[in-house]
Amino acid sequence: MVVNYIDAHRSEFGVEPIGTTLQVAPSTYHAAKSRLPSARQIRDGLMMPILLAIRVVNFKGYRAHKLWKAARRAGHDIGRDQVARLMKTIGIEGVRRGRRVRTTRPDDQAARSPDLGGPGLHRRGSELSVGHRPHLCFHLAGCRLCVFHRRRLQSQ
Questions:
Q1: Burial grade of 149 (CB within 10 A; 0-12, 13-18, 19 or more)
Q2: Are 26 and 19 in contact (CB under 8 A)?
Q3: 40, 91, 127, 145: least buried by Cβ within 10 Å?
Q4: Helices (H), 15-143
Q5: Does residue 58 sit in the same domain as residue 22?
Q6: Are residues 50 and 27 in the same domain?
Q7: Which domain range does residue 144 map to?
Q8: What's residue 75's pLDDT?
């Protein structure tokens, strides 16, 4: 990550000033640039186009688990977590079923509209009313039925 940042800004500032600011020795940067790719990087480079091809053949609908199963059926020895990591690296996602992604989240700092009624007050249209429970309740066939009377409050 640091190497990518230095590569992006090296023409403007140079390697040594950036390395001094980030507390990275210039020799560390140059060693990372001259190092041969690891076996994992080579394998990832080979598997990414294969996973993309399998995804396209399956109408771009597979998530990591199904894509892993399809790759195994196609004869590729690859791990499920590796498939998930490569999908994240490539920037692909499968089709989500069930609950949708929530893109709008409420702002906790935003001002809320004032509560015009306290507990026991009910809103009916633009009127506030108070529910009163009478002393008379009926018990019919094991069910309890209570009648509620409402009293309107006059707005001032």
A1: exposed
A2: yes
A3: 91
A4: 15-22, 26-34, 39-57, 64-73, 80-90
A5: no
A6: no
A7: 121-152
A8: 94
Q: pTM, whole model, 2 decimals? A: 0.51
> Do the beta carbons of residue 64 and residue 83 sit within 8 Å?
yes
- Is residue 138 assigned to a domain? yes
Tell me how far apart the alpha carbons of residues 148 and 132 are, in angstroms, rounded to a whole number. 6
Domain assignment present for residue 114? The answer is no
Is 105 a domain residue?
no
User: What's the confidence (pLDDT) of residue 133?
Assistant: 46
Instruction: List the beta bridge partners of residue 41.
Output: none
Q: Which residues pair with 68 in a beta bridge?
A: none
Among 43, 128, 123, 34, smallest CA distance to 83 is for 43
Q: Does residue 19 sit within a domain?
A: yes
Total number of domains in the chain = 3
Identity at 95, one-letter amino acid code: V
What's the average pLDDT block by block, 10 residues per block, for the chain (156 residues)? Answer: 87 89 89 91 94 89 90 94 93 78 80 65 54 47 51 48
| pLDDT of the residue at 42 | 94
Q: For residue 71, what are its two tokens? A: 């790759």
Are the beta carbons of 135 and 122 closer than 8 angstroms? no
